[in-house]
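Collaboration report, partner site 2.

Our partner group contributed sequences for two proteins of shared interest, and the home lab folded both. The records are reproduced in the order in which they were received, starting with the first partner submission.
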Amino acid sequence: MSLEEKSAGGAASVEADDGGGGEESSAIAAGIRRDVKPWLNLVDDLSNLTRDAEISVPQICVMGDQSSGKSSVLEALAGVPFPRGSGLVTRCPIRLSMKRSATGSRWSAVAHASNEPSKSHSASTPGQLTKLLERLTDGLTSTSSNFSTETINVRLSSPDVPDLTVVDLPGIIRTSTAGQDPAVIAQVNNLIESFLEQARTIILCVIPANQDIATVDILERAQKVDPRGERTIGVLTKPDLIGPGNEDEVLAVLHNVRKPLQLGYVMVKNRSQAQLKAGLTGTEAREAEEAFFRQHSHFKGCDPKLFGVANLTTRLTQLLVTRIQHELVPMKADVETALASVRTELKGLSSYGNASTPGDRQKLLVTVTQEYVRHLNSVVQGEYRDRVIVVHPQLRLYTRALGVFDALKGKVEMTAPRFNDEDFVEQLASQMDALRGRELPGFMSAQSFYMFMAQYVEAWRDPARVAATEVRSLSLEVATKLLDVLVVQYPALREAVRSVAGVVMETAYESALEEVDDLLAKEKDPFTINDFLEQHINKLRYDRFEQAVQQSFEAVKPNHESWIGAKEEAGSFLRQWYRTTHGVNSFSNAEDMSAILEAYWLLAAKRFVDNVCMALDKKIMGAVAHKMQEECYKFVHDDAKLGRFFEEDAKLVLRKEELMEKRDRLSKANAAMANIQVRKSSTQQVRVTVTAGPMGLGLSLAEEGSRCVVKGFRPMPDGQPNPGQEAGVQLGDTLEQLDGVHLGSFQDAIERLKQRRGTVVLTLLRQKA
């Protein structure tokens, strides 16, 4: 959009259609319409194309209390009598997309509920559309006291409407009425909050002018989600109901002094119920509105841009276009992310071709089996480079099996006897005495060692069998899940291979249990040539001797007068210890046996855990892929089964069609944004002359990439016009030069603007629409 250089006295005036349904009292300039219409068309297209992709698009949402005049504002914009009354009149969101058609063209509208997009209903007059909206609303809500979160979408084409899209939401409910479900209060609040929280939504707060601004709930809600006020604009309605003496307070709000909003306020006067019944036309209503503000004793001296539906339309159009331009890149990223997700899911549903002949089905079975076995080998070997395994971490079989192996190790370690406890040694001495045979005094019984180890090894059986069961379950789970991922469209084939997997796993499990039993039998017959055993026995004996020496020092009384006395006492302790642990007696033999048992138990336990883990790896996981391939190939020559195997799931066929349709819509949305990005890629320089007022240029500036960008217009005192806005500065403009001198950083621009007084010439960078 191109603006010539202007002074504050000759500010750019961008006016809108009156939307009243008759002749225009003001019109958007043809050039402006040409520039903004592609952006408004884009957001409407995006709303339709991304409706189920959870991507929010810029939109104007009309919000306020019940009976605040929301529907009247829409009526003034569109020239369509919306339902009026007290209580919950708007019972579901209504999305109204208005398109200005060529002069002389016929009025037309099409509407449908969001839950039935294929069932569109046409209307050729505003009255027909009103009845259609009532019928669609009744269809979405069970009673007049209920409401729906489904949206009624209306596309309206007329020469007398602006190019604009707005969403009317149910009014905020304070208390439920007779016959109304109390839960509707929370439901309506949740619906309103869901729209408020969408960062791309422009919040149009409708406020009755005869209401205390401090009690307006919607302004408080908007402030919570939009604390900087970048997307909130206020509309004051019902100015004819302002009580005598309250005009000054209303003016303070209108002039953005009280309860200020960065985007300010506009006041409108819509047709009353009596005027509607009297048949007052839209054109007559706009003329009456203009006359009301022009003749009002308190309003006639104010800036005319603060009043009227025409000015409101202009403001809303500018705000929406600016919002669309600002959000274009993030929206494109969102659409591309959604598109990638759809393509990924669609690829999973369409990974194999159709098989219409027996030969095709045989080839397809071989292809599917090979792909399945290849992935099985990868997960068994712990190779996770394939995309399917990366996306589905639960398929990483070997990683999950390592958890089972670690658990087995811990359980076996927990079975270790308390070799160093005194009670254990005493019990061991008793058991050795009970097993004594022909051994001479001072000789230990090898039979006792073998019997004790057999007893300890038996405690490993249950942990090992549990580990085998868990590995079997994991392997079956992964084999089944892999089927679900790779052949999602063939339920009969999945079921057949799943049955095969169950049989293969059971056979492998039985083989693994036999291996576990064999390992237990071997460990019950102790053997090793590993020097770890003797080294560890020597270490244990030395540790016990070192402990005895330490205890002998601790036993020495601190009151000895000579070193000889202390030495004698320590020596006495050690001699007693030696007789106890190395004498020819039961306790001495038990002490020595305890060290030997502990050393061998550690060696055997480590060996057993390793051997069991390797057995489970080989017998269960390692055998799966090969056995599954053998069994699946047996189906190759069974034409009847192959025919059933490759019948696609009807639900998945439908899902694939839905995804293809969604992919096409998102691709169109992506292309639409790419196309308009190309057309808007260049910027233009715009020069405006601004005479600074008491509060400077009246601009709210923000830093974007070290540049100074116009984000809003500050309220002026006493209803004075904003100098920057009057001169033609627009939201989104970037300040490039001040009086012909280039501005540097954001901070530099702020400092230089503060120093200027009087009239300045701003050179702005503005995106071409």
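Second partner submission, folded after the first:
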Amino acid sequence: MSRQHQRHHQTQQQQQLQQQQQQQQQQLTVQQQQQQQLLMAEHAAAAEAAELFDLLCVATTMRQILALHRTMCEAVGLRPSPLNDYYPKLKAKVRSWKAAALWKKFDARAAHRVYGKGTACAGTRVLVIGAGPCGLRTAIEAQLLGAKVVVLEKRDRISRNNVLHLWPFVITDLRNLGAKKFYGKFCAGSIDHISIRQLQCMLLKVALLLGVEIHEGVSFEHALEPGGDAVGWRAAVTPADHPVSHYEFDVLIGADGKRNMLDFRRKEFRGKLAIAITANFVNKKTEAEAKVEEISGVAFIFNQAFFKELYGKTGIDLENIVYYKDETHYFVMTAKKHSLIDKGVIIEDMADPAELLAGPNVDTQKLHDYAREAAEFSTQYQMPNLEFAVNHYGKPDVAMFDFTSMFAAEMSCRVIVRKGCRLLQCLVGDSLLEPFWPTGSGCARGFLSSMDAAYAIKLWSNPQNSTLGVLAQRESIYRLLNQTTPDTLQRDISAYTVDPATRYPNLNRESVNSWQVKHLIDTDDPSVLEQTFMDTQHAGPHVETPGRRKRRSGDSMPQGASLLRWIAAQLHSHQFVPELKEPSDVLRNGRVLCGLISRYRPDLIEFAVTKDMSPLECNELAFAVLERELGVKRIMSAKQSLELTDIESRIWLNYLDQICELFRGEIPHIKHPKMDFSDLRQKHRINHTHAPPDFSKLLQMKPKAKSPMQDAVDVPTTVQRRSVLEEERAKRQRRHEQLLNSGGAGTGTAGAAGGGSGVGGATAGGGNLHHVGQNDTPRRSKKRRQTSDKTANIVQLILRTALCHELSTAISAFESSINEVSSISVQVVSSPPLHLYVTPHPPPTPY
């Protein structure tokens, strides 16, 4: 019995061991399946992101660019954020060859020491008004410095057709940012101009790929001082309920052109009346249009005959004219007033330039005729049937204005301090300094002002620098801007950075003293006006927890009540908000934390999922996400959060405060409508898909009709013919020499045999040679053809043998690699004719 019992016991142990092994095997199989599914999902997301990246590079409208970028971020699980939190993750997710070439450009730029590895402005928040070229260029530099950057754009499309002249440093700067990756024709050859629309598209893509957050269709109204639930400065916008109104910032950049919503005082420079006309015509890209030469700039004093002929034949009197060929045919000219009046463009002469060029005093149709006639004459009528391009209003893109009145801001920046919160306001681009059209300086000086503003942001982010010191240095640099030309800047244009010393020679950072800029500070703290220290050598700010903002200690409201009010304001649309009477209800309700996370990060928690979950399950989910994804360490279990009996109120209130500070001042998630990219995908495939190579005639030896040496083997004609011709030439030379030698010997013999009649003998011998040569000509031609055919056959055989050997080696490698990674079997028989056998493998056994 004991033996039977032992056997039974051993059998049970073996069965249990087998069951355990089976369970472990099943668990391992499940884990492998899960890992495989995750890996497949990652590969699918990476493939989708790579495709969206390729489409983003070729997109040409603002809506397409923004929609593609948002879809790509969703595919890889990212959202716009500071450089070090966004760019490395995007680079790791998108790994196509085209993306890798662009990442190399970005890496080289971001590695410059001036950016401090993306930490020079860590913790600084920037709001840029306007997504024009200068606004986007400022946003890019601030992003590279490590700041959180948000851009507001009033329009929802890019529609400006005018063409900008580019100084050499601007071309180099844009190339270093990867402009050629987005627009292959950028400044090819000697071209030194680009349309505003194309430039905006390129800079928009660069800013988005670096992590800048851009919101279209939002208009800035004014800045809101800190107060209530707001810890920092915010913006009043239109529409008023747009989520960007929650964004809190430290730096405000005005890049909205002449609108100047920041109300900086400006001074006017007025010269002699000069009326400019700009016109954009549709570029149909025909052969006739391609032959028309550009006019980089013709002034009256340098080509008087041209302008006199223009006036004599058309009655159009100009001082200068420029023609650039880009996406449109762009003309800009300076017209004389008497000519405009004589042609009926200006209805009535007036002394005030504003009244002279006002809408009611201008005949629009005659203005169109004037611009078209000037364009046709200056291009020698090589572009018939010119059609005007349309502007963003849907009207012909023709404009007339007085450019002798230029405005410049009296100061480039100012500071407002309220309740301990500092706000730096800076102007860039046309908001700061209007360009003088004939010099083509608008884009170049605009980019210089963008870099200067970015350097001011870097100084501002460093607590070692005083407010007065930052303002004084910024104003010292601003005084140089109006004096800049391509010749007065530093010679090494490839070394330009935000540091003004790399761009301005003989820079004096202290030309403006601290006491001269005190009027630029509006503060409720007088101590700010007494601090003048500066540390220009410091690379970055001393920020322990960048991006975190603490509640002001001066608030009279208790911490719990303040938290409850802020949470209720964020979740006001939810039905459970009226039930929140006390701060503890935030935890006991269960769905509050999930709703708060879903408002800002719906990619982490979808609020609809919590509909059927209990408060215990909701809190457990929220605590896990906060700890795993957002770095807020858990202090209690989900069960304890519902009771709150064993935990001090101070502890769980501080926990709620950490959660609120995590989202306070951020922009809630905006749900954008999905966009259909099928048309863009189809267009991209048509433009970038090449037909597969055809090897069907690779080894065929059928000669072409033009030459017996032509073969289907892809060998250049010159290579085929050169060896044969040289050999034939050498043979003909040898035969000719032999004939000459034999002819000389025959003549001498005949003369000797003739005795006294030597002359007659020589003549007879010459006649015999002549007859022999005539009879031998067909024979030699036939032999030459036979030799040529033999040589051709030998060359063909050599080429065929070498090609078959190389092809066999390549196909063998192809066969082995395909059999390893693919679900088909490939067998190649390389002896002519070439055969390729493809056999599918049996489907793999599922896990």
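Feedback sent to the partner group on the second submission included the following. The chain has a mean pLDDT of 82. Residues 717-840 form one domain.
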